[in-house]
Amino acid sequence: MHSDLDATFAALADPTRRAILARLATGDATVTELAAPFAMSQPAISKHLRVLERAGLISRSRVAQRRPCRLEADPLREATAWLAAYRDHWAERYQRLDALLDELHAMENADRNGEAP
User: Fold this and answer.
1) Is the Cβ–Cβ distance between 3 and 35 less than 8 Å?
2) Do the Cβ atoms of 48 and 14 come closer than 8 Å?
3) Is 7 helix (H, G, I), strand (E, B) or coil?
4) To 10 degrees, the CA torsion angle through 2, 5, 11, 12?
5) Please, which residues bridge with residue 29 across strands?
6) Which long-range contacts (CB under 8 A, 24 or more apart) does 60-67 make?
């Protein structure tokens, strides 16, 4: 699984590839359609597509003369699941920090008012 995650995160490290995935989230597209918003050649876009395809983030089919690209969600789900474990860890830590800060504020207010905590 880690090698899949490595490929997924390596592919996601590039802003052009992330933009391509965002475009494909709205529907299938050809290389020409994917290259249109970028100031780069179609061969350069094709290189990005190969990286995305090797990572399993996209697939290509053949429809007559067209080879539309399609977003494949499974690698993104795996990456999200991996990140979710860390999100949960940090959420728990923040909750503990909030509780400690609340306790410190209560003690500070008690000191100010001359009350015993």
Assistant:
1) no
2) yes
3) helix
4) -140
5) 69
6) 66/30, 67/30, 67/31
Residue by residue, what is the 3-state secondary structure of 48-115?
HHHHHHHCCCEEECCECCECCEEECCHHHHHHHHHHHHHHHHHHHHHHHHHHHHHHHHHHHHHHHCCC
CB-CB neighbours of 49 under 10 Å: 22
Stretch 58-73: mean pLDDT: 92
Q: 113: pLDDT confidence band, cut at 50, 70 and 90?
A: confident
Q: For residue 75, count CB atoms less than 10 angstroms from its CB and return exposed for 0-12, middle for 13-18, buried for 19 or more.
A: buried
Amino acid, single-letter form, for residue 70 = R
How confident is the model over 76-103, as pLDDT tens digits?
999 999 999 899 999 999 999 999 999 9
Contacts of 65 (CB under 8 A, 6+ apart): none
